[in-house]
Amino acid sequence: MILEKFALSGKTAIVTGARTGLGKGMAVGLAEAGADLVIVNRSPMLETEEEIRKLGRRCLPIEADLSNTNVIPEIVKRTLDEFGKIDILVNNAGIIRRAPSIEFTEKDWDDVINVNLKAVFFFSQAVAREMIKNNGGKIINIASMLSFQGGILVPSYAASKGGVASLTKTLANEWAKYNINVNAIAPGYMATNNTEPLRKDDERNKSILDRIPEGRWGLPEDLKGAVVYLASEASDYVTGHILCVDGGWLAR
Ligand code: NAP
């Protein structure tokens, strides 16, 4: 029956950047659907861990800084030691730096590209090698409205998210033959730390809200349905897709 195809009982999911914001919301959503979780973040994730355990799911928190890809093999190893397999990977960890392009520094370029794009590729590669042995899996990348648009004052972020959209399609093409679905979620404007400066700027806040048909900022909970769908059997014939959860932003 169709609702059973959305269930994630017995699945192991890794979510990066799960201390707060969208990563925390998606990790809890996957746990609500039945998955056990490996949560990865550069700082402790006590609240996320507690919420997952309260749902009766197993949770392995791993502190690691994804700005260096050297940490990835150890995360994969610890996941396999604990759970024996990886069914779902959500590449969510991301950062943003804001400055005019004319004065944007190489450090702000490299820092963002390393976490938002390079880590996404090498984490996907490391996990796909295990998924192939396990006859498939689901990889979900977190894209952005700036996978489609240029944004303002965020050149490295926009480039990284454009890259995430392209990479999602590249990996989908290559790995479909291994039963690995690679999709992305493009959140709209969501109320998290990442967008706090925009919400504090009355003019930007108003112009953003004026364009969102739903008339409100998105919340981490708004991504739960999309991530569970893309992580589940219900989406087995969906790959290379970028699912916008944006309150209608792109429809305007
Ligand atoms: P957020 O509230 O700033 O949370 C980002 C999370 O990623 C934090 O838990 C952070 O850990 C973690 N993280 C950052 N750098 C890391 C690193 N090097 N290694 C490990 N963990 C790291 O941001 P968010 O809004 O939830 O964003 C999550 C994802 O959604 C990002 O990819 C972002 O680009 C994307 N997105 C957000 C929006 C939005 O409107 N908010 C829209 C579109 C896309 P710490 O807390 O320790 O820093």
TrEMBL record:
Group of enzyme by EC: oxidoreductase
Catalyzed chemical reaction(s): 2-dehydro-3-deoxy-D-gluconate + NAD(+) = 3-deoxy-D-glycero-2,5-hexodiulosonate + NADH + H(+)
Entry keyword annotation includes Oxidoreductase: yes
EC number(s) given by UniProt: 1.1.1.127
Keywords associated with the record: NAD, Oxidoreductase
NCBIfam families from the UniProt entry: kduD, PRK06935.1, PRK07231.1
Listed name of the protein: 2-dehydro-3-deoxy-D-gluconate 5-dehydrogenase
Organism, scientific name: Tepidanaerobacter syntrophicus
Lineage of producing organism: Bacteria, Bacillati, Bacillota, Clostridia, Thermosediminibacterales
